[in-house]
# Entry
Amino acid sequence: MKLRVPTEPPAPPPPPPRREADLRPYQIQDLADHIPEIRKVAAGTDVRFLFRVILAEGSLQPSPEVIEKLNRLLKEIDERLEVR
# Structure
């Protein structure tokens, strides 16, 4: 029996499926409502959601006090969530 040693390294695996969407607060609430079903459908896979918080795009800048209050609330969810 002869064994062949590959001459090139194996190809890297394909990137995981992902999709981006610009969600409004009510849509994030809808997403939260569907998390149990999403976890059930995707059982055995590592499902993660990436979030970016954007303030004041196309509107008035929030005051430093508003940003401080928002950051306190966001940090209750995860320390990495912070607006600057």
